[in-house]
């Protein structure tokens, strides 16, 4: 009798687990958790950053450009610099961890807090940033391929409001991203 009760309880638990894994059931109000609780720390940081984004406020990248804080700079010219991303491990949770992950950032933000602020006058700089992205990717041994990502705004998971390109590679990347 005890064994039968155990079997019934275990089968119920398995059925509950499979129901919870069903995306249609997950959207049911009984299973729904508050939006904030479902967010990753990167998503929460992006929401907080967007709420505080101020076109004139300096960002951490201004300190890096001014060499006021230490960073691993792997390329620099008069318009931009490339540096290793500080959080490659955190990206593992977002399934974005890559053995090579660097950022290309313009030295003068010039209103480019995010890509969607781009104007005609930024075209040459935007082209230059892409050109440098592939140049440094080759320098980093990413000849087999790499990915360039620009996060824009809260839904794009942007956390630093100074335009930057993420360049990732060094392993087979999957598609689509999350
Ligand atoms: P995004 O979420 O797209 O705005 O990316 C911002 C990136 O900036 C994120 O990948 C981590 C990186 N980052 C933030 N602070 C620092 C820092 O102090 N040094 C370096 N190297 N990277 C940083």
From TrEMBL:
<feature type="domain" description="HIT">
    <location>
        <begin position="60"/>
        <end position="178"/>
    </location>
</feature>
<feature type="short sequence motif" description="Histidine triad motif">
    <location>
        <begin position="162"/>
        <end position="166"/>
    </location>
</feature>
<dbReference type="InterPro" id="IPR001310">
    <property type="entry name" value="Histidine_triad_HIT"/>
</dbReference>
<dbReference type="InterPro" id="IPR036265">
    <property type="entry name" value="HIT-like_sf"/>
</dbReference>
<dbReference type="InterPro" id="IPR019808">
    <property type="entry name" value="Histidine_triad_CS"/>
</dbReference>
<dbReference type="Pfam" id="PF01230">
    <property type="entry name" value="HIT"/>
</dbReference>
<protein>
    <submittedName>
        <fullName>14 kDa zinc-binding protein</fullName>
    </submittedName>
</protein>
<dbReference type="InterPro" id="IPR011146">
    <property type="entry name" value="HIT-like"/>
</dbReference>
<dbReference type="GO" id="GO:0047627">
    <property type="term" value="F:adenylylsulfatase activity"/>
</dbReference>
<feature type="active site" description="Tele-AMP-histidine intermediate">
    <location>
        <position position="164"/>
    </location>
</feature>
